[in-house]
Design a protein that fits this description.
It is a single chain. By secondary structure, the protein is of the alpha/beta class. The chain has 3 domains: 70 residues, Orthogonal Bundle (Arc Repressor Mutant, subunit A); 111 residues, ATPase, nucleotide binding domain (Nucleotidyltransferase, domain 5, 2-Layer Sandwich), CATH 3.30.420; 115 residues, 2-Layer Sandwich (Nucleotidyltransferase, domain 5). It is 34% helix and 26% strand. It is built from 9 helices and 15 strands. Strands 6-5-4-7-10 form a 5-stranded mixed beta sheet, with helices on both faces. Strands 13-12-11-14-15 form a 5-stranded mixed beta sheet, with helices on one face. Strand 12 and strand 13 form a beta hairpin. Helix 6 crosses helix 9 and helix 7 packs across helix 8. It is globular, with a radius of gyration of 23 Å.
Amino acid sequence: MASTITVRDMNQEIVRSCMKGLGPVSKSSLARKTGLSFPTVSKTVDLLCESGEVEVAGTEGSSGGRCAALYRLNPMYALYLLLAVENDSVHWKLKDLEGNSLTSGSTEGDGEVLAVLEKKVESIRQLYPSMKGIVIGAAGMVSGGKILLSGGECQLVGIDLQAYFSNRFGLPVRVINDMNAVAAGRWSSDGQKDNCCVCVYLGKNGMGAGIVINGNVWQGASDFAGELSFLPDMPGKLRPQDKDFAPSRMLDAYRKIIQIYASILNPQRIILYRNPFLEGVLEELYQECEKIIPEHSMPLLVISDDYEKDYEKGLMVIAGSL
């Protein structure tokens, strides 16, 4: 039989999940929405208020009787630090539960990225002791909390960032590949409508992809999925700094990548984040792909300007699961 603590925790999670995105809500309304009894909801809300996770947010309009109190999730109860690392560049945002940014900024590590990250986390935690977790997005192959491969000269390669920061600050930490975070953010922003979506981005460190299948980010058996520079005939051609990179061949590179994903994953949509090589070529790209891909299997191609937005959203989605 389930213990009292387990039942209490389950009830708190039911009420907490119901309150997300609702705004101020009464106990009686929560009882109707959750299916829990009013006494159970009342006790659960009182416990969440005692812990600071829920706060009173006014009262309902009176219809002649006593006005019922309204409650909402306290956005400052849990703060999450989102860090994005690319080579020596570090970008950060501290967000509350409603996604509001409390502080943000960026800096260059000058070869001492780990020290920069540690100093930044320490300073923010001193200012905001209610920080509950850290999510680090990194450009490169990430597995088991480590950056294993990077298209640039990242000083963090081989370091178990997840364990390092978790042990250093006693907080839950998640390290994830940047494109996997982007894909999670895009899926969340689109309302999780597609069975499969692929996101493709070309940055200064090369091209990578993130994949979501039925709501789950697919990283592969060894977190290698999406490392496009390892595809046949692609090494050295997908990173603008490499000598073999040729802007005139980028349309062909995109065509091959779309055909590969269409034949293996058969996604509904492929999101191509905007860059100069995609300007004015969408129609031609469709035409080239449709020479190989059957019409009924051709994915919808979307050129998006929302890379940063999707990246940030994805990091926050991951933070919510810590």
